[in-house]
Amino acid sequence: MYLIVGLGNPGRQYEATRHNMGFDVIDKLVEEYQVPQAGVKFNAMYGKGRIGGQPVILMKPLSYMNLSGGPIREMANYFKIDPETEMIVVYDDIDLDPGQLRIRKKGSAGGHNGIKHIIQQLGTQNFVRIKVGVGAKPKGWDLADYVLGRFDKEDRALIEEAQERACKAVELILTDSVDAAMNEYNKKTGNV
């Protein structure tokens, strides 16, 4: 069984913001693969279903971004999931152009506080992540204001397409391999 986690912040005021990219991808996965919601457990919304024939748990931690690691650790322990081989984390990345995907097997937090907390709670950097580019913050902007802001119309179109590709990347990881997904989705797209 795979645990697929989308990072974000709970609450209406955070919906469709750059920082809620992970939540948005999980919502698309739920819709596309008709994954039934199972409720709330360990301070996270979750659902259980199948993607590409593989059993999955889709999870949105409700602890706020910077404390995402606790609910993830508890969920992984409860369902006996090995984060190093059976977990995918989806989140926003300001170092990538809007709509660009970057899939990695492991790595540091790269300044992302949600990932930093997950690494701290799990005691490992070795877990698959799908980063969705939201673009660099404009000069002079506060980082928090930027990531908690929303996309303009032009970027929104790129982001929606990227979310679709992120869903397909999840399925490819589950049905083939992380390497196959990296080969397919880490290349620059024509419109980015």
UniProtKB/TrEMBL annotation:
Transmembrane segments in this chain: where?
A: none
| A single GO molecular function term of this UniProt record | tRNA binding
For this protein, the record's PROSITE patterns field holds: PEPT_TRNA_HYDROL_1 (PS01195)
Give the residues annotated as active site: 19
Pfam families cross-referenced by the UniProt entry: Pept_tRNA_hydro
For the biological process aspect of GO, one term held by this record is: protein quality control for misfolded or incompletely synthesized proteins
Any one Gene Ontology cellular component term annotated for this protein = cytoplasm
Q: What quaternary structure, including any partners, is listed in this protein's UniProt entry?
A: Monomer.
What NCBIfam families has UniProt attached to this entry? pth
Q: Which UniProt keywords apply?
A: Cytoplasm, Hydrolase, RNA-binding, tRNA-binding
Reaction(s) catalyzed by this protein? an N-acyl-L-alpha-aminoacyl-tRNA + H2O = an N-acyl-L-amino acid + a tRNA + H(+)
* Enzyme Commission number, as recorded: 3.1.1.29
Protein name per its UniProtKB record: Peptidyl-tRNA hydrolase
Which locations, inside or outside the cell, does it occupy?
Cytoplasm
**Can you tell me which residues bind tRNA?**
14, 64, 66, 113
- Site Stabilizes the basic form of H active site to accept a proton: give positions: 92
Q: What does this protein do?
A: Catalyzes the release of premature peptidyl moieties from peptidyl-tRNA molecules trapped in stalled 50S ribosomal subunits, and thus maintains levels of free tRNAs and 50S ribosomes. Hydrolyzes ribosome-free peptidyl-tRNAs (with 1 or more amino acids incorporated), which drop off the ribosome during protein synthesis, or as a result of ribosome stalling.
